[in-house]
Structures are given as structure tokens and as C-alpha cells.
Amino acid sequence: MASRPSRFRDVKAVLFDIDDTLFPSSDFSALARENAVRAMIDAGLGASEKQVRRELSGIIASRGSNASDHFNRLARRFACPDRDRVVAAGIAAYHDTKTSISPYPKAAELLLSLRSKGYLVLVASEGVALKQWDKLIRLGLDPLFHRVFVTNASGRGKDPAFYKAICRQLKLPAKKVLMVGDNPAKDIAPAQAAGLRAIRVLTGRHKAEKSRADLSVSDLSKIGPLL
């Protein structure tokens, strides 16, 4: 413990983002949508893959990634003989792809190591709680966390108030809580604004963006020796 960097010496709890931090969410989402598009076309959606992908991207951009009606809206944009069948085919293909998700290498090992050292190991995620729990369970990581905090339960996004509320619930000062995430705008900046320390993992679609994280690492395996 003596070799631990001074900036993390007093940390008692470690918060983890889920998407593109614990597993390659962007890669799996893209694959799941591609499979859904093909399944919908095979079921009778009257358009090319290029047309459907473009339309789906627009729907996701306007409705948000957590909306539950993406495929229903998509089916209404093109001719199809049986809309219910087309939508069901898309949903089935999307969820079938989700069965193959797996954590980044060393993710489970890191979480177990932190627990064994006495840290509180937690999730701080943005989205719908049911969906985020589904990911953790499919990843096999859910038993490794002491608590899971999701923004929809608080009615806000990942803003400083969200992180301050977590600290209050943990009954810990912000300086003793560390946030680990990939997204500078949601995981790093607001956590630091709330007084937390933050480690950025350079993974996922935000890895080329700049941030002022306390430390940046290439992958989760680099975090263990710091704590």
C-alpha cells in the first residue's frame, strides 16, 4: 500500500461505469443492430440494408438509445406485409446477439481484487435500471458489486448532483470516492466537479476525446496496482 499514488491513498469506494468501461458496449450494440436490420429485411421489410441502417440511426439519434420503440418506428417507415412479424424478428435478433456479450479481459479479476482489499465496489451508470441490471447479469458481474446506482432512479443524467447524491448515500466524503469510466463528459468531468477523483479508461467510442482525468489508463488491468 505504501507505493499507492498519493492521489488515491484515501479512496474507500470505487464507482464503475458499465458501457465501454466494463465491456465493449459500442461494438456489441452495433453488431446487435446489424443483426436486427438483416432479420427485419428477411421477415419482409421492404428496403435495402443501407436504407434501413440509415433510418435506424436517425431514429436512435432523435429518440435516444434507451427508447423502447426503435423497431416499431422503423417498421412504419417502410412497406412490409406483416409489421408485427417484422418488429418481432428485429427484437429477437437484437436480443439473441446480447447473449454473446462478455466483459473486457481482467474486469472480473479487478472487481474481485478490490473487494478483497476492502473497497466498496459500485456501479454508477446512466440509463434505465432494468437494462443496466440486464447487462450486469449477462456479463456475470452483478454479484461483484455492493450497490448499483443508475441515473433514471434519480431523474437526472450523470451530472455533479448525481455523484454527490451517491456520496451522501455511501456516507463518504467525495474525496474518498473514485470514478472509473470511459466518457469524459459523463464519467470524468461531472465526477470531478462533485469532488471525486476520476480514472479514465481509454476504451470505446470516446477514447480519442480529451479529458482532465486524474489518470488515464489503456485498460482495466492497469487500475489494480494503483489501489
Structure in words:
- The protein is α/β, with parallel strands linked by helices and 227 residues long.
- It has 2 domains: 6-23 and 103-226, 3-Layer(aba) Sandwich (Rossmann fold); 27-98, Orthogonal Bundle (DNA polymerase, domain 1), CATH 1.10.150.
- Helices cover 44% and strands 12% of the residues.
- The chain contains 8 helices and 6 strands, in the order βαααααβαβαβαββ.
- It has helices at residues 25-42, 49-63, 70-77, 83-98, 107-116, 129-139, 160-170, 184-193, and strands at residues 13-16, 120-125, 147-150, 177-181, 197-201, 215-217.
- It has a 6-stranded parallel beta sheet, sandwiched between helices.
- Helix 1 runs antiparallel to helix 4 (83-98) and helix 3 crosses helix 4.
- The longest helix has 18 residues, at 25-42.
- The protein is elongated and about 65 Å long.
- The mean pLDDT is 91.
Ordered list of secondary-structure elements with their pairings:
Blueprint: E1 13-16, H1 25-42, H2 49-63, H3 70-77, H4 83-98, H5 107-116, E2 120-125, H6 129-139, E3 147-150, H7 160-170, E4 177-181, H8 184-193, E5 197-201, E6 215-217
Parallel strand pairs: 1-2, 1-4, 2-3, 4-5, 5-6
Helix pairs in contact: 1-4, 2-3, 3-4, 7-8
In brief:
The protein has helices at residues 25-42, 49-63, 70-77, 83-98, 107-116, 129-139, 160-170, 184-193; strands spanning 13-16, 120-125, 147-150, 177-181, 197-201, 215-217.
Strand arrangement in the largest pleated sheet: 3-2-1-4-5-6
Unreliable parts: none
Number of self-contained structural domains: 2
Sequence of secondary-structure elements = EHHHHHEHEHEHEE
The CATH class name of the largest domain reads: Alpha Beta
The end-to-end span amounts to 8 Å
Count every helix, treating DSSP H or I runs of 4 or more residues as helices: 8
User: What is the beta-strand fraction?
Assistant: 5-15%
Radius of gyration: 19 Å
Shape: elongated
The number of distinct β-strands equals: 6
The whole-number mean of residue pLDDT values reads 91
Q: Output the structural class.
A: alpha/beta
CATH architecture of the largest domain: 3-Layer(aba) Sandwich
CATH topology of the largest domain: Rossmann fold
How many strands, which pairing sense, and closed or not: the largest β-sheet?
A: 6 strands, parallel
The CATH homologous superfamily of the largest domain corresponds to: HAD superfamily/HAD-like
Helix content: 40-55%
